[in-house]
Protein backbone atom coordinates (compact mmCIF):
# COMPACT_ATOMS: atom_id res chain seq x y z
CA UNK A 1 0.00 0.00 0.00
CA UNK A 2 2.87 2.36 0.89
CA UNK A 3 6.34 1.95 -0.53
CA UNK A 4 9.13 4.29 0.53
CA UNK A 5 12.34 3.65 -1.43
CA UNK A 6 15.77 5.06 -0.60
CA UNK A 7 14.48 8.41 0.59
CA UNK A 8 16.95 11.15 1.53
CA UNK A 9 15.61 14.30 3.22
CA UNK A 10 17.51 17.42 4.22
CA UNK A 11 16.91 20.53 6.32
CA UNK A 12 18.94 22.97 4.27
CA UNK A 13 22.39 21.28 4.22
CA UNK A 14 21.76 18.98 7.18
CA UNK A 15 20.71 15.49 6.14
CA UNK A 16 17.98 14.01 8.38
CA UNK A 17 17.05 10.82 6.45
CA UNK A 18 19.55 8.54 4.74
CA UNK A 19 18.33 6.01 2.15
CA UNK A 20 15.23 5.17 4.15
CA UNK A 21 13.09 2.36 2.71
CA UNK A 22 9.87 1.03 4.22
CA UNK A 23 6.83 -0.94 3.04
CA UNK A 24 3.36 -1.25 4.47
CA UNK A 25 0.76 -3.76 3.30
CA UNK A 26 -2.96 -3.20 3.46
CA UNK A 27 -4.53 -3.54 6.96
CA UNK A 28 -1.17 -3.79 8.72
CA UNK A 29 -0.14 -1.85 11.80
CA UNK A 30 3.50 -0.91 11.31
CA UNK A 31 5.47 0.89 14.02
CA UNK A 32 8.39 3.24 13.66
CA UNK A 33 10.67 3.24 16.69
CA UNK A 34 13.61 5.50 17.48
CA UNK A 35 15.11 7.88 20.01
CA UNK A 36 14.46 11.63 20.04
CA UNK A 37 15.92 13.20 16.92
CA UNK A 38 16.19 9.89 15.05
CA UNK A 39 14.11 11.25 12.16
CA UNK A 40 10.68 9.70 12.78
CA UNK A 41 8.70 12.93 12.39
CA UNK A 42 10.83 13.90 9.40
CA UNK A 43 9.89 10.61 7.73
CA UNK A 44 6.16 11.13 8.34
CA UNK A 45 6.39 14.72 7.10
CA UNK A 46 8.21 13.51 3.99
CA UNK A 47 5.53 10.89 3.28
CA UNK A 48 2.66 13.37 3.77
CA UNK A 49 4.27 15.93 1.46
CA UNK A 50 5.14 18.54 4.11
CA UNK A 51 8.80 17.96 3.28
CA UNK A 52 10.14 17.12 -0.14
CA UNK A 53 12.77 14.37 -0.37
CA UNK A 54 15.97 15.27 -2.22
CA UNK A 55 16.01 11.78 -3.74
CA UNK A 56 14.21 8.45 -3.57
CA UNK A 57 10.56 7.68 -4.25
CA UNK A 58 7.31 7.24 -2.35
CA UNK A 59 4.37 5.27 -3.77
CA UNK A 60 0.90 5.09 -2.28
CA UNK A 61 -1.58 2.60 -3.76
CA UNK A 62 0.71 2.21 -6.76
CA UNK A 63 1.01 5.95 -7.50
CA UNK A 64 4.06 8.18 -6.98
CA UNK A 65 3.27 10.79 -4.32
CA UNK A 66 6.68 12.35 -3.63
CA UNK A 67 6.53 15.90 -4.91
CA UNK A 68 2.73 16.13 -4.63
CA UNK A 69 1.28 18.82 -2.35
CA UNK A 70 -0.05 17.54 1.00
CA UNK A 71 -3.73 18.19 0.19
CA UNK A 72 -3.51 15.93 -2.88
CA UNK A 73 -1.96 13.19 -0.77
CA UNK A 74 -4.75 13.46 1.83
CA UNK A 75 -7.27 13.36 -0.99
CA UNK A 76 -5.81 10.05 -2.15
CA UNK A 77 -6.53 8.55 1.28
CA UNK A 78 -3.37 9.08 3.30
CA UNK A 79 -4.03 10.93 6.56
CA UNK A 80 -1.40 12.33 8.95
CA UNK A 81 -2.24 13.00 12.59
CA UNK A 82 0.75 15.13 13.58
CA UNK A 83 2.72 15.42 16.76
CA UNK A 84 1.24 18.13 18.99
CA UNK A 85 -2.27 17.74 17.53
CA UNK A 86 -2.31 21.06 15.60
CA UNK A 87 -5.99 21.72 16.26
CA UNK A 88 -7.84 24.91 15.31
CA UNK A 89 -8.10 25.87 18.96
CA UNK A 90 -10.58 28.75 18.56
CA UNK A 91 -12.97 26.63 16.56
CA UNK A 92 -15.49 24.19 17.99
CA UNK A 93 -15.06 20.42 18.09
CA UNK A 94 -17.64 20.09 15.30
CA UNK A 95 -15.88 22.72 13.14
CA UNK A 96 -12.51 21.05 13.64
CA UNK A 97 -13.99 17.76 12.47
CA UNK A 98 -15.63 19.38 9.45
CA UNK A 99 -12.28 20.93 8.49
CA UNK A 100 -10.92 17.40 8.27
CA UNK A 101 -13.46 16.54 5.58
CA UNK A 102 -12.26 19.17 3.09
CA UNK A 103 -10.98 16.74 0.40
CA UNK A 104 -13.64 16.56 -2.31
CA UNK A 105 -13.83 12.78 -1.93
CA UNK A 106 -14.88 13.16 1.72
CA UNK A 107 -16.94 16.38 1.72
CA UNK A 108 -20.15 14.96 0.28
CA UNK A 109 -20.42 12.12 2.78
CA UNK A 110 -19.17 14.14 5.74
CA UNK A 111 -22.36 13.78 7.80
CA UNK A 112 -22.14 10.00 7.66
CA UNK A 113 -18.42 10.04 8.47
CA UNK A 114 -19.07 12.41 11.34
CA UNK A 115 -21.58 9.98 12.83
CA UNK A 116 -19.00 7.18 12.60
CA UNK A 117 -16.35 9.36 14.28
CA UNK A 118 -18.85 10.23 17.03
CA UNK A 119 -19.48 6.50 17.51
CA UNK A 120 -15.74 5.89 17.97
CA UNK A 121 -15.39 8.95 20.24
CA UNK A 122 -18.73 9.58 22.03
CA UNK A 123 -17.06 12.29 24.11
CA UNK A 124 -16.60 14.41 20.96
CA UNK A 125 -20.35 14.32 20.31
CA UNK A 126 -21.06 15.49 23.86
CA UNK A 127 -18.66 18.39 23.36
CA UNK A 128 -19.46 19.18 19.72
CA UNK A 129 -20.13 22.89 20.37
CA UNK A 130 -17.21 23.44 22.73
CA UNK A 131 -14.07 25.31 21.61
CA UNK A 132 -11.14 22.94 21.05
CA UNK A 133 -8.89 24.91 23.39
CA UNK A 134 -11.22 24.20 26.33
CA UNK A 135 -10.75 20.41 26.01
CA UNK A 136 -8.35 18.45 28.21
CA UNK A 137 -5.14 17.08 26.66
CA UNK A 138 -6.69 13.63 26.22
CA UNK A 139 -9.83 15.04 24.65
CA UNK A 140 -7.74 17.15 22.28
CA UNK A 141 -5.87 14.02 21.20
CA UNK A 142 -9.17 12.25 20.51
CA UNK A 143 -10.26 15.27 18.48
CA UNK A 144 -7.03 15.21 16.47
CA UNK A 145 -7.59 11.50 15.79
CA UNK A 146 -11.24 12.09 14.89
CA UNK A 147 -10.30 14.90 12.51
CA UNK A 148 -7.72 12.61 10.89
CA UNK A 149 -10.53 10.14 10.12
CA UNK A 150 -12.79 12.72 8.48
CA UNK A 151 -11.01 12.59 5.07
CA UNK A 152 -11.93 8.85 4.97
CA UNK A 153 -8.32 7.63 4.98
CA UNK A 154 -7.15 4.25 3.80
CA UNK A 155 -3.89 4.73 5.68
CA UNK A 156 -3.41 6.77 8.87
CA UNK A 157 -0.04 7.94 10.18
CA UNK A 158 0.00 8.77 13.90
CA UNK A 159 2.89 10.74 15.42
CA UNK A 160 3.12 10.02 19.16
CA UNK A 161 -0.63 9.96 19.82
CA UNK A 162 -0.26 9.04 23.50
CA UNK A 163 2.29 11.76 24.29
CA UNK A 164 1.61 13.42 27.65
CA UNK A 165 -1.57 11.45 28.37
CA UNK A 166 -2.58 9.76 31.63
CA UNK A 167 -2.22 5.92 31.61
CA UNK A 168 -5.99 5.33 31.23
CA UNK A 169 -6.09 7.54 28.15
CA UNK A 170 -2.97 5.92 26.72
CA UNK A 171 -4.85 2.64 26.87
CA UNK A 172 -7.82 4.22 25.09
CA UNK A 173 -5.62 5.60 22.30
CA UNK A 174 -4.18 2.14 21.67
CA UNK A 175 -7.68 0.63 21.68
CA UNK A 176 -8.86 3.18 19.13
CA UNK A 177 -5.88 2.39 16.88
CA UNK A 178 -6.67 -1.32 17.06
CA UNK A 179 -10.32 -0.69 16.28
CA UNK A 180 -9.34 1.39 13.23
CA UNK A 181 -7.40 -1.55 11.87
CA UNK A 182 -10.46 -3.75 12.44
CA UNK A 183 -12.36 -1.26 10.26
CA UNK A 184 -9.79 -1.89 7.51
CA UNK A 185 -7.61 1.19 8.01
CA UNK A 186 -3.87 0.64 7.63
CA UNK A 187 -1.70 2.26 10.31
CA UNK A 188 1.82 3.70 10.52
CA UNK A 189 2.51 4.49 14.17
CA UNK A 190 5.25 6.43 15.95
CA UNK A 191 5.11 5.84 19.66
CA UNK A 192 7.29 6.38 22.68
CA UNK A 193 5.46 3.57 24.48
CA UNK A 194 7.54 0.93 22.69
CA UNK A 195 6.42 -2.15 24.61
CA UNK A 196 2.72 -1.55 24.07
CA UNK A 197 3.36 -0.55 20.47
CA UNK A 198 5.18 -3.79 19.72
CA UNK A 199 2.26 -5.67 21.29
CA UNK A 200 -0.33 -4.19 18.91
CA UNK A 201 1.74 -3.75 15.74
CA UNK A 202 2.49 -6.46 13.17
CA UNK A 203 5.92 -5.20 12.13
CA UNK A 204 8.29 -2.43 13.10
CA UNK A 205 11.23 -0.45 11.79
CA UNK A 206 13.94 0.98 14.06
CA UNK A 207 15.34 4.33 12.97
CA UNK A 208 18.66 5.63 14.34
CA UNK A 209 20.37 8.83 13.20
CA UNK A 210 18.18 8.98 10.12
CA UNK A 211 18.82 5.39 9.03
CA UNK A 212 16.74 2.21 9.33
CA UNK A 213 18.92 -0.10 11.42
CA UNK A 214 16.49 -2.95 12.11
CA UNK A 215 13.18 -4.20 10.76
CA UNK A 216 11.04 -7.25 11.28
CA UNK A 217 7.96 -8.69 12.90
CA UNK A 218 7.28 -7.38 16.40
CA UNK A 219 7.78 -10.89 17.76
CA UNK A 220 11.30 -10.96 16.28
CA UNK A 221 12.14 -7.43 17.40
CA UNK A 222 11.10 -8.14 20.98
CA UNK A 223 13.92 -10.71 21.05
CA UNK A 224 16.56 -8.33 19.64
CA UNK A 225 19.20 -7.12 22.10
CA UNK A 226 19.21 -3.62 20.60
CA UNK A 227 15.47 -3.27 21.15
CA UNK A 228 15.56 -4.81 24.61
CA UNK A 229 18.38 -2.56 25.81
CA UNK A 230 17.62 0.73 24.06
CA UNK A 231 13.83 0.76 24.08
CA UNK A 232 12.54 -1.68 26.69
CA UNK A 233 15.06 -0.97 29.45
CA UNK A 234 15.90 -4.68 29.90
P1 LIG B 1 11.28 13.34 18.35
O1 LIG B 1 10.90 12.03 18.95
O2 LIG B 1 12.09 14.18 19.30
O3 LIG B 1 10.16 14.08 17.69
P2 LIG B 1 12.18 12.42 15.74
O4 LIG B 1 12.70 11.03 15.67
O5 LIG B 1 10.79 12.67 15.29
O6 LIG B 1 12.37 12.98 17.22
P3 LIG B 1 12.92 14.52 13.92
O7 LIG B 1 12.07 15.55 14.60
O8 LIG B 1 12.46 13.98 12.64
O9 LIG B 1 13.20 13.32 14.93
O10 LIG B 1 14.38 15.13 13.76
C1 LIG B 1 15.41 14.47 12.99
C2 LIG B 1 16.62 15.41 12.86
O11 LIG B 1 16.26 16.54 12.06
C3 LIG B 1 17.09 15.95 14.19
O12 LIG B 1 18.51 16.03 14.14
C4 LIG B 1 16.49 17.33 14.25
O13 LIG B 1 17.30 18.21 15.00
C5 LIG B 1 16.47 17.76 12.79
N1 LIG B 1 15.34 18.66 12.50
C6 LIG B 1 14.02 18.39 12.73
N2 LIG B 1 13.26 19.43 12.33
C7 LIG B 1 14.11 20.38 11.83
C8 LIG B 1 13.93 21.66 11.25
N3 LIG B 1 12.73 22.19 11.09
N4 LIG B 1 15.05 22.33 10.85
C9 LIG B 1 16.29 21.79 11.00
N5 LIG B 1 16.51 20.56 11.52
C10 LIG B 1 15.45 19.86 11.94
Task: Describe the protein in words.
Helix 3 (about 95-100) runs parallel beside helix 7 (about 135-150). The chain folds into 2 domains: about 1-75 and about 155-230, 3-Layer(aba) Sandwich (Rossmann fold); about 90-150, no CATH class. Strands 6-7-8-3-9-10 form a 6-stranded mixed sheet, with helices on both faces. The protein contains 11 helices and 10 strands. It is globular, with a radius of gyration of 17 Å. With about 230 residues, it is α/β, with parallel strands linked by helices. The longest helix has 16 residues, at about 165-180. The mean pLDDT is about 90. The protein binds adenosine-5'-triphosphate. Adenosine-5'-triphosphate (ATP) binds near residues 14 and 42.
Write the layout of secondary structure elements.
Elements: E1 2-11, E2 14-24, E3 29-33, H1 40-47, E4 55-60, E5 63-64, H2 70-75, E6 78-81, H3 93-99, H4 104-107, H5 110-120, H6 122-126, H7 137-149, E7 155-159, H8 167-182, E8 186-190, H9 194-200, E9 203-208, E10 211-217, H10 218-223, H11 225-231
Parallel strand pairs: 3-8, 3-9, 6-7, 7-8
Antiparallel strand pairs: 1-2, 1-4, 4-5, 9-10
This protein binds adenosine-5'-triphosphate (ATP).
Amino acid sequence: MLKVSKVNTFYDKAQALWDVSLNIDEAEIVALIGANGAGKTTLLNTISGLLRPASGSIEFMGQRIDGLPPHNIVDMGLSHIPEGRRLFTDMSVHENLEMGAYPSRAWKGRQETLERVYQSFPMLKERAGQLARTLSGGEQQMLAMGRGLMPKPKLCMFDEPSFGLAPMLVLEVFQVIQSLREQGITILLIEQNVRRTLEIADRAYVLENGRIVLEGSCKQLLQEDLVKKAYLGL
